[in-house]
Amino acid sequence: MSQAGDPLTPSPGQHLTWANVLIAFCFLLIDALLSIYFKLGISRSLLIAAARCAVQLYIMSLVLDRIFAANSLWAVALMALVLNLLAASEVTLNKAKYRYEGMFTVTLTSMIMGCVPCFAVASRFALSQDPWWAPSKFIPALGMALGNAISGVTIATSYTLEQLNSNRDKVETYLAHGATRFEACRPVATDALRLALTPIINQMPVIGLISLPGMFTGAVLGGADVDTAAKLQMIIIFCLSASTAFASLSACIATCGIMVDARGRIRPERAWSAKDGRPTPRVVRQPASSAAAAGDDPAAGALLGVQAQAMWYGIPEAWRRWRRQGNVQLR
């Protein structure tokens, strides 16, 4: 229980000014000085990040003040959409190591499907909010969910794209034995989801024992009862784990569906490195020597034939057709 006169508990008449923020900013200058002294090369990035943080929080405070005053479902829905758009842009443009066509749409859909329904249900039943879209509870909780979902979706998507590029032989083996594209990609999706949930799983055991998370600290500093703040943090962290799992799983499934087409072909040309940029499409022509060799050598002709079938029908169907032609004998 917070004590009366506690300086950490703001009273209704107490307001923080920019002078208070400037005093706290002096601590950040210590990091910048250390960077200059040890030649870390991060002082400029640190100051830019701090400036962005201050500006973004100030703008958000102005926007939320109007939304809280309006107390409108449409205002809350618009704010939720804006937050999801910003989160999807952050993943696609800044966080992801690899990108593919339509990644922004996939990420945005995964964020909305994973975070909004989860916290809508939690707000109504776990937090006992009536209406469930109460701006003072729903928007901050959704913002926390999107922050965790950014990390989860980025990890899941990057790992899936990396595995389909570096370990494509394993997936192609499943496809060649008749597995569907989602059955073949299931081991990759399993590992990707496990990695995406690892940060929040590692966070849970230390909450309350070693670290005091933001929701708990904010509720206590806001004057809430400590017992209520602890229960609020439990609800939030459990919902964060669920929303991160749903968003990461949706993004992973969509990524597998795009990178492996309906004919069972892995399409590495659909993805590119964020560092190198999107490559320019090239038309690959078959050399004349290969065509001549195919006409002279029946084995080479059969090999080129199955390659053409694999491009047109997909690997599983091409394999079955080649076996029916008597080119492969299983022993």
3D architecture notes:
The N and C termini lie far apart (76 Å). This protein has helices at residues 18-37, 43-70, 73-95, 103-126, 135-166, 168-176, 181-203, 214-221, 226-259, 288-296, 298-313, 315-324; strands at 98-100, 271-273. The chain has a two-stranded antiparallel ribbon. It contains twelve helices and two strands, in the order H-H-H-E-H-H-H-H-H-H-E-H-H-H. 71% of the residues lie in helices and 2% in strands. It has three domains: 17-70, no CATH class; 73-273, no CATH class; 288-324, no CATH class. By secondary structure, the chain is mainly alpha-helical. One of its GO terms (cellular component) is plasma membrane.
List keywords for this structure.
disordered N terminus; globular; 331 residues; 3 domains; two-stranded antiparallel sheet; mainly alpha
